[in-house]
Amino acid sequence: MIIRSLLDTDLYKFTMMQVVLHHFPSAQVQYRFWCRTPDVDFGPFIDEIEREIDALCEVRLREDELDYLRSLRFIKSDFVDFLGLFHLPRKSIHVSPGDKPGELSIVVEGAWLHTILFEIPVLAIVNEVYFRHRIPEPDLELGRARLMEKVEMVKQASDLPAFRVAEYGTRRRFSHAWHDEVLRALKARMGPSLAGTSNVYMARRHGLTPMGTMGHEYLQACQALGPRLRDSQVFALEVWAKEYRGDLGIALSDVYGLEAFLRDFDMYFCKLFDGARHDSGDPMEWGERMIEHYRANRVDPLSKTLVFSDGLNFSRALELARRFAGRIQVSFGIGTNLTHDLGHEPLQVVMKMVRCNGQPVAKISDEPAKTMCDDPAYLSYLRHVFDLPSV
After folding, report:
1. Where is the Nicotinate phosphoribosyltransferase N-terminal domain (predicted)?
2. Cβ(276)–Cβ(248) under 8 Å?
């Protein structure tokens, strides 16, 4: 089995799931899998992926795992009680060949509360099954050498004593075993520069801080769940604040692009939330705009944190840290560059929500390639509602 614990996922899946339990327990959703890497042949591996998903749907949280979740200050007791009864429903996930030769189709449909935990472990399964066959003898020594180069880069950055990195690489990791080795090495050698990991299982295993707040799907679902479409981003942030009462205060900024985010992220939200996360577009420009926005809303930027997490490597993260040093607090989430840097090209795979309560939902990214929707008419309407340029 690749996934042996339901904790082997990103923290933000649990934090969003708690909001769903308390505010949207009847919401119905659909997710779809995409592979952005061209000419990938999944055909020989579909049966094996199915078997791994069969096993995933048999996994339950053990009592000691539930106790660990109870120890997290923002996780509520009724949510843990619910998780004690929870398992992923096999009937809600459908795996088959795609329309083109070699394509893989994965569709998840059902109650959001019961399907939200599929995404991360399913992507990890697809990656590990694919690469265990395509790269049966990975160059682990090369991977270890590259990892040590990254650690040395941080150690040599003496001008950045507050540099902090979290590991965000579960969904595209080479394997569970390599993920585990990477975190063991980082904990031993990076000291306080390692802020934590997004993976709850690995955080518990290695005594690290689990990191994460909200993902794109949460704000997307609010397009269908809020009072009206134009107010969906404000609605999502208000519901989040109501649930967590000042905890988990990093807002995601790119579901409708930066301009729309800044229009909605007014003085109230500037003061209420601890900061914002960047996940598409030019990070330098984004950081400058966020600093300017805080100042315009009479908020000291040094009291806020910007989290950068868009396809980062260590060189880029250090460059960003130097750009904003002394101007605003910064932190970095690095994923694939940590958990899948073994000398070959990793897959660019995603699984995104495309419908909620029967209506399309979409993400309009600051990076056009990341815009995702299976309904062009709805995407056009969404651009109109949020006053975004057409493409």
Report:
1. 7-127
2. no
**pTM of the predicted structure, to 2 decimals:** 0.97
Q: What is the dihedral of CA 258, 391, 333, 84, to 10 degrees?
A: 90
How far is Cα 65 from Cα 70, in angstroms, rounded to an integer? 9
Sheet holding 93-97, edge to edge: 93-97, 104-111, 28-35, 349-356, 359-360
321, 280: one domain = yes
Count of domains in the chain?
2
pLDDT one-digit tens code per residue, 62-99: 999 999 999 999 999 999 999 999 999 999 999 999 99
Closest listed residue to residue 198, CA positions, set 181, 212, 184, 183: 212
Residue 330 shares a structural domain with residue 351: no
Containing H/E element for 109?
strand 104-111
Provide the token pair at 30.
């659909």
Answer yes or no: are the C-beta atoms of 42 and 104 closer than 8 Å.
yes
- In contact, 83 and 109? CB cutoff 8 Å: no
Question: Where residue 107 sits, what CATH number does that domain have?
Answer: 3.20.140.10
User: Cα(289)–Cα(324) distance, rounded to whole angstroms?
Assistant: 12
Residues 326 and 352 in one domain: no
| Domain enclosing residue 209, as ranges | 140-339
DSSP string, 232-249: HHHHHHHHHHHHHTTSS-
Q: What is the pLDDT of residues 45-72, one digit of tens each?
A: 999 999 999 999 999 999 999 999 999 9
Closest C-alpha to 16, from 257, 309, 221, 229 = 221
Q: Which residue in the block uniquely carries the two structure tokens 């998780």?
A: 83
Among 62, 33, 185, 192, which Cα is nearest to 123's?
33
Rg of the chain in Å (alpha carbons): 20
Looking at the structure, tell me whether residues 132 and 275 fall in a common domain.
no
| Residue 52: closest CA among 101, 118, 105 | 118
**Could you say which of 322, 339, 356 is where a domain stops?**
339
